[in-house]
Amino acid sequence: MAWLSYEVVAFYLNIVAMSVFLLFSSLKKFYSIRDRLGFAIDNRKTSDFLNYCKDDIHWFQAWFTMLMLCVMAVTMRTRSHEGLGLSGGVLFFRHLLEIILLGQLYFSSTFEV
What pTM, to 2 d.p., does this model score? Predict the structure, then answer.
């Protein structure tokens, strides 16, 4: 029964992640990896946006789902937030660094390795 609950939560978190990605991409122009490498030709203007970014949106959804599952685990597991200590700070600092990395990867017009 617990696995079924997890799958339902993960399913809805993926839908929410796609909505958040669309919200972010409407605020700032999204550049796919194919587009930055020059393989997209003119797909941005001729195809559906979700079809255009189908290879890149998976990584945002995986990160967002992982972040929300961590937030849910922290809020449901601890009785007081003072008991989190250093581990909660390290966890959320790691997610902050991932936000910076994803922002540089997805919303930068150049592809730097």
Answer: 0.63
